[in-house]
């Protein structure tokens, strides 16, 4: 009797490569967030200022909140890639792409010349504003399944920046502190700040639609090539 050919499983290295990449990105993200948090705490302790306001200020930056979300997404992708987790939902993983690209774009266009960090703060600053806004979208393109993003998702993704903007206005009204110069009501006034925010939100919505279109285009290309894709999933 002829012996049937054995089925050779794919190499473990190939199957684990997306997890390795996610782990590397997670390591970068958590390291940079930790460096900035350490400097925030040490700065407050060194000047004798209360620690609570310093921590509130740290977590009031859109960059920090976005990179924290991103770190949770890619950490879950590394440690529990098959889990039924909020951070593995297609809409959440793709929203992180939109937010982190916006972080990088705003930094490059409006903020990069305002800060002159050195040492570890310079490293952390470049990881959060430059490296991850490039590397995570590439990770998404390479490893996140396409074809599960609905056209309504970009509108849902706007909830976070809208809530963030309202929070910044309320916090600023109490403390007169604003995380970004283009949102500084004390210097620009409410009318200009609201116009600035509307412009940024319009850009964010447009970016979300572009990312959704890329998702649909890649999904269609895979279908034409015979690949199997899942149906649109819950956000």
Task: State the gist of this model.
This protein has 8 helices and no strands. It is mostly helical and 235 residues long.
Structural account:
This protein has 235 residues and is mostly helical. The protein has one domain (17-221). Helix content is 72%, strand content 0%. The protein contains eight helices and no strands. The protein has helices at residues 12-47, 51-58, 62-79, 90-111, 119-143, 153-156, 159-175, 185-224. α4 (90-111) crosses α8 (185-224). The N and C termini lie far apart (53 Å).
Low-pLDDT runs of 5+ residues are 228-232
- What count of domains describes the coordinates? 1
The helix/strand order is HHHHHHHH
For this entry, what is the oligomeric state of its chains? single chain
Give the amount of beta strand, in percent: under 5%
* Count of alpha/pi helices: 8
The number of strands is 0
Main pleated sheet: none
Which structural class should the secondary elements be placed in?
A: mainly alpha
Computed CA radius of gyration, to the nearest angstrom: 21 Å
* Helical content (DSSP H or I, runs of 4+): over 70%
Mean pLDDT: 91
Q: Given the C-alpha coordinates, what overall shape results? A: globular
Terminal CA distance reads 53 Å
């Amino acid at each position: 009797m002829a012996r049937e050919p054995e089925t050779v499983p794919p190499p473990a290295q190939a199957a684990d490569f997306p997890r390795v990449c996610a782990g590397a990105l997670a390591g970068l993200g958590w390291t940079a967030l930790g460096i900035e948090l350490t400097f925030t705490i040490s700065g407050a302790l060194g000047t004798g200022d209360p620690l609570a306001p310093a921590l509130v200020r740290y977590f009031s930056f859109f960059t920090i909140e976005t990179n924290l979300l991103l770190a949770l997404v890619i950490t879950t992708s590394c440690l529990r890639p098959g889990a039924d987790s909020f951070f593995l939902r297609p809409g959440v993983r793709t929203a992180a792409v939109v937010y982190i690209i916006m972080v990088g774009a705003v930094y490059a266009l409006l903020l990069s010349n305002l800060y002159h960090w050195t040492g570890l703060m310079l490293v952390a600053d470049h990881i959060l504003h430059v490296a991850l806004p490039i590397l995570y979208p590439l990770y998404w393109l390479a490893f996140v399944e396409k074809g599960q993003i609905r056209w309504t998702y970009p509108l849902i993704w706007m909830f976070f920046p809208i809530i963030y903007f309202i929070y910044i206005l309320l916090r600023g009204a109490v403390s007169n502190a604003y995380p970004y110069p283009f949102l500084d009501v004390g210097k620009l006034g409410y009318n200009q700040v609201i116009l600035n925010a509307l412009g940024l939100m319009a850009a964010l919505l447009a970016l979300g639609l572009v990312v959704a279109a890329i998702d649909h285009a890649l999904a269609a290309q895979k279908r034409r090539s015979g690949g199997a894709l899942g149906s649109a999933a819950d956000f």
